[in-house]
Amino acid sequence: MPLKGGEDRVLPEYGLTCRGPAKCGDITHAVDQGYRVIALVDGRFEDVAAVWHKEILHALSAGATVYGAASMGALRAAECHPFGMIGIGHVFERYAFGGLEDDAAVAQVHAPAEFGYLAFSEAMVTIDATLDTALAAGTIRQDEHELIRSKADAVFFKERTWRRIFDVIAADIDNAVDRLKPHIRNIKREDAEALLDILLERKISTGGNIASEFAGWQFNQTTQWRKLRNIS
Question: 176, 169 in Cβ contact below 8 A?
Fold first, then answer.
């Protein structure tokens, strides 16, 4: 649901308020507004400070249920699930348990709010999901999978589009467009939709068998936290 002009999209029939990509302080602001179920999907990171782990811990300590999926949400959920944040979807699973460590794997360039945050590039997690699907279908071989991934990963994230990827692999992979296009998966969208389904069905998911590892932890109001409170 693209948001234009940076405004909230309120869906009273579902009890949902949809906002654009989150920045540092936005989750704290939501808690201050009284929200007790918060779902983080996309986040800003280059032109402003990114969503801070400390504000997620603050939300959890205030009794909020905090979900994360797809992009920045999956990354933060992988980092904060020991404290009770709930991760949803494939990207979260990869960060939490699948060995994915590169924060930039979910990075994309997108348009500003007035143009609905339209994506201009592809994230590596999307490339990975597509290649894995094509490999499972027998459309590409394992060596081709590794070659395509290596070349795609070498493209600067702001320039990583399917057109650019097809260009850089054209000399090595025959009929790459025809072989890969049917298997393109927008895994971030799939994960975001899975999270939205949970919210719309008003089910509180526990993220499978994932549970808080630090029961009884207490939120520490550090000097840096107090600074954030003064500016958010």
Answer: yes
- pLDDT-derived band at 3 (thresholds 50, 70, 90) equals very low
Alpha-carbon gap, residue 58 to 123, rounded angstroms = 29
Q: Which of 137, 162, 143 is closest to 152 using CA atoms?
A: 162
pLDDT per position as a tens digit, 25-60: 999 999 999 999 999 999 988 888 899 999 999 999
Residue with tokens 């990509």, as numbered in its chain: 21
DSSP state of 100: -
Asked if residue 68 lies in contact with residue 39, where contact means CB atoms within 8 angstroms, the answer is yes
H/E segment holding residue 142 = helix 142-154
Helices and strands per DSSP (H, E), number in the chain: 10, 5
CA-CA-CA-CA torsion sign (31, 34, 35, 36): positive
Average pLDDT over residues 196-223: 70
Structure tokens at 209: 């068998």
* Alpha-carbon 198 to chain mean position: 16
57 within 8 A of 219, measured Cβ to Cβ: yes
In this prediction, residue 201 has a pLDDT band, given cuts at 50, 70 and 90, of confident
C-alpha closest to that of 232 among 39, 3, 52: 52
What pairs with residue 86 in β-bridges? 67
Q: How far apart are CA 170 and CA 203, in angstroms?
A: 46
